[in-house]
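Archive maintenance. Older records in this collection stored only the sequence; we are now back-filling the structure field for every entry so that each record is complete. The fields below show one back-filled record exactly as it appears after the update. Entries are processed alphabetically, and ATP-dependent DNA helicase is next in the queue.

ARCHIVE ENTRY
Title: ATP-dependent DNA helicase
Organism field: Triparma columacea
Length field: 506
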Amino acid sequence: MVDDDSDSEENERGLESKNPSQPKKPLSSPMPSSSSTPSLLNKEQAEILKYVNRPESPSIFITGSAGVGKSFLLQEIIKSRKARWSGSAGAVAITAPTGIAASNIGGRTIHSFAGIGLGKGDEEKIIKKAAYAKTSRERWWLCETLVIDEISMLDSSLFEMLSQIAQEVKQNNRPFGGIQLILSGDFYQLPPVKGRFAFTSPLWAQAELRSFVLKEVIRQRGDSKFVNLLNKFRTGQIGSLELDDINECHEDVFKGFPNDGILPTKLYCKNRDVDAENRHHLAELKTKPITFRSRDVWKGNNRKKFEIDFLLQQIQRKVNDMICLKVGCQVMCLKNLPNEDLVNGSRGVVVGFEGNGPAYPIVKWTGDMTSTVKPAIFDQGVSGLLLQRMQLPLKLAWALTIHKCQGMTISRAEMKLSDAFESGQAYVALSRIESKDGLKLTGERVTQKDVRTNAAVTKFYATLDNQQGGGEKRKAEGGGSSKPHSAKRKDHHDVGDDQYCMGDTF
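Back-filled structure field:
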């Protein structure tokens, strides 16, 4: 669902400026970029970070198969760009096409940032409204770097519309008004709901994006055979050998998961199947339910109702304000917790609750590790307003949708690939798994027809593979053009005996 961050009231609520048509920029200069790179980056990631921090602020496209560390690298790039524009609030806009994808990188939907609501209707009117309503105009005017993650889900028409809004606000005919673009994603994964891929637009070439293809797989590191199999599914280059290999995980011949009480997460294509599965299993448990309510803290003075509502909606996508758990619950970790050796997507089962003080859940994780899960802080911010939610970093995990698991690493999963209905869906599901031992297939055996790829995507990646050094700078025919591209929460209730509110000292 797209966030409708409507700007209908922004003309009255926008920030003041001496020139009402041109918002003020903070009086600050770019800070020098640090020459050092985080030690956790591998060689190819470090090279990309160094390139993006060049003085000319080049635009880039980061791609590669699932599990190569695109999201991790993107977070490091965001940190470095924020450091460069230190003191310039709003200089780095962090976005993605969907709420889930945006939450994963601590950003907002591109629709919300751009001020285009649902983005439907008369294109010219949408552009003018977004460019001249004060709040959205302020965002665009301050923006120096625009990050768009999961670019595969953004269609070409929207890509072009965003550029035109930026050009109008910046009064600059360069693509996106001269804003640095940081695009990330894999076009072999989930496509736009409607329309064509962004790379099919002439604007893609005009933007002079340098493409970098990450090659080193991190998620399935050490299992080269499984990595090769996944790459075949990614590109659709599968034959009888690959089908026989993946069908070794079919329920007819599957050897079973370890008998440690941790069930596989079921991946579904549709939300209704996920909700029904989780409700059913929770109700089946005869153990005592304990409810944990979050504690929310607001920081900043810019507390406009539509921004409060927006942040509550966004943070709810990260972690629920109320979580009901029972002994026997299948759960998933929602945050990377290095000290606990847990990542976003780690799977476990609730085996008890602490007896003293708050009854925090005790979770047995895959690998026979057991830990007490305590509240963590989740941040969501926009326009000088920060919402911090303290809540257990857990969610029920008998089932998830394939869309919601994008970007996760899952240790055990069960899926029915014959239900896949769009290109890349089967690959996204399969590539969440750390190893083949963690995969169980149900329903019909996988056949060639279940593996859908897009011919335009295959052709696009062939051009990238022919480039050297991670991709050459792409220019429009004739050396590019400077002409604008055009194309047609609620309040908490009283807390009961079996309910806990997070963090009295938070």
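Update note: Residues 227-448+495-501 form one domain. The CA atoms of residues 329 and 350 lie 5 Å apart.
Entry marked complete.
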